[in-house]
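Notes, p. 3: input format for complexes.
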Amino acid sequence: MRTIEHWIGGGTTRADSTRTAPVWNPATGQQQAEVLLAEPVDVDLAVSTAAKAFESWSQTSLTKRTKVLFAFRELVSRHAQELAEIIADEHGKVVSDALGEVQRGLEVVEFACGIPHLLKGDYSDQVSTGVDVYGFREPLGVVAGITPFNFPVMVPMWMHPVAIACGNAFVLKPSERDPSASMLVARLWAEAGLPEGVFTVVHGDKTAVDALLDHPEVAAVSFVGSTPIARYIHQRANANGKRVQALGGAKNHAVVLPDADLGFASDHLVAAAMGSAGERCMAISAAVAVGTGADQLVDVVAAKARAVRVGPGREEASEMGPVVTAAARDRITGYVDSGEQQGATVAVDGRGLVVPGHEDGFFVGPTVLDHVTPSMDVYRDEIFGPVLSVVRASDVDEAIALINANPYGNGTAIFTSSGEAARRFQRGVQVGMIGINVPIPVPMAYYSFGGWKDSLFGQSHVHGPEGIAFYTRAKVVTARWPHVDHPIAASYHFPTT
Ligand code: NAD
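Output follows (497 residues plus nicotinamide-adenine-dinucleotide):
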C-alpha cells in the first residue's frame, strides 16, 4: 500500500506520524493509498521549518520572487494533465473538469506573477512642510491553509501563490480524502526554485488542524470547507489572536424567470447542478421556478438530467463521475429518501445507480426533486451531491426573499431576458457572488472570491486584492530630512502646516 507522506523542509518525510487514513478510488470503490495523519509534534516541525524559511524568503527581492512564480506557472501548466488525472483518481471528477480546476488555479498563479505591481506602495509628498508620508505592506510570517476535498488543486491555489508572492511561508493542510495533488504541487514549487520550507504540506485530520490553530508561530489561517468547521476555525484561530478567513458551505439558488430562454436555462441548470457530481461550493442546488412555466421547466430539466452520462472520471465519455466516498454517497441518497418522505416529488431518481464494470464505485445518478418547500431538509441543508431541488415562486421579489431567508450566501444566479429584473436581483440578494445568465459565477483571479452570511467567517475574501491585503500588513512612514542649516524647532502642539 502506497503511503502519502508530508512535505517538510523541501522533501517527503514521515516525521513522527504513525496514524493513517485510507485514500479511496471513488470510481472502483477500492482503497488505493494511505495518508499519514500528523501529530502536534509533526505540525510543530512543519511550522518551525517554515518560520526559518520565512526569515530569508521575506527578504528576497521582488525580482527573484517573480522569477520563481513565473517558473512555477510554467511547470503547473506543463503538468496540468498529470494533476488532473491525480484529481480524477482520488476525487472522482472527470478529467476534463479537473483540467478546468487546474486552469482556474493557474490563473491565481498568473495573478501572483504581478506581485511587484500588486505590492506597490503609496507616497504623499510634502504632507506638511518638509514632511513626506509613504506606506507599504509586509508579509505576516508563517500562514496556514486548510482546504476541502472538492478542489484539491484550485482551492489551495487560491491561497499559496498569493501568500508566497507576498513573502510569507505557507503551510498547507489539504483534505485527507485526496491528498496526492498537493505533493506534486510541492515538487513543482521546489523545481521552480522556491527555497526549502517556504511551501510545506502537512497531512492530517482535526489533530493537525487544531495544532495549526494553536501554534504561536502561525500568523494567519485561511480555511475553506463546510460551515460548521469554518465557524469553529474562525472562533479558535481568532481566540488565539490570528488573522483568519474561513469560507464555508453553500446553498446556491438559480432563479428562472418566465422570460428566460428555456433551452439555455435548462442546459446550464443541469450542468451547474450535476457537474462534478454536485460537489462544488458554487453548484446550483436549488432552482427557483418563477411563474406558471414551472412544470415545463421541470420536464425539460428532468429530461436533460436523465441524459447525463455517468461513469469513471478517467473515461472520456463520462460527463459526471462518482462522489468522493461511500459515506458521501449514503448521505446523499439519505437526503433523497428524506425529501421523498417529506413530500417532494422525485422527478429523476439517481439512487441505486450501477455503472457497469464499476459496481463498487461510489456512484449516485443525477436527481431532481420537485415541489420542494423551504421547510424540507433537502432544502435547508447543503447536500453536496448531484441533487437539484426545485422550489416555486410567483415573482422575482418572492424569489429574492426566499434567497435572503436562507442562511447561506455564497453564490446565486438568475436566468432572464429582462435587464430590469436582473438589476433588481443583483441589488436585492444578500449573496457574495451573482451570475446573470451565468450559473456558476466564480470571480476571476484578479477579483476576490467569497460569500456572505454563513458562507464566510471573517472579513476577507480569497485571492485578488483581498488576498494581497490578507497576507500582508501595512506600514506607514512619516519622514522628514531637515536641512542641516535650518533645523526645525520642536513644538508642544500638533503640527498643522
Ligand atoms: P470539511 O469541512 O469536512 O473539511 C475541510 C477541511 O477541514 C479538511 O482539510 C478537513 O481535514 C478539516 N476538518 C474536517 N473536520 C474538522 C474538524 N472537526 N476540526 C478541524 N478540522 C476539520 O469540508 P469538505 O467535506 O472537505 O468539503 C466540502 C465543503 O467545503 C462543502 O461544505 C463546500 O460547500 C465547502 N466549500 C466551500 C467553498 C467556498 O468557497 N465557500 C469552496 C469549496 C468547498
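The pocket of nicotinamide-adenine-dinucleotide is lined by residues 146-151, 155, 173, 175-176, 205-206, 209, 224-226, 229, 247-250, 281, 382, 384, 410, 451, 455 (CB under 6 Å).
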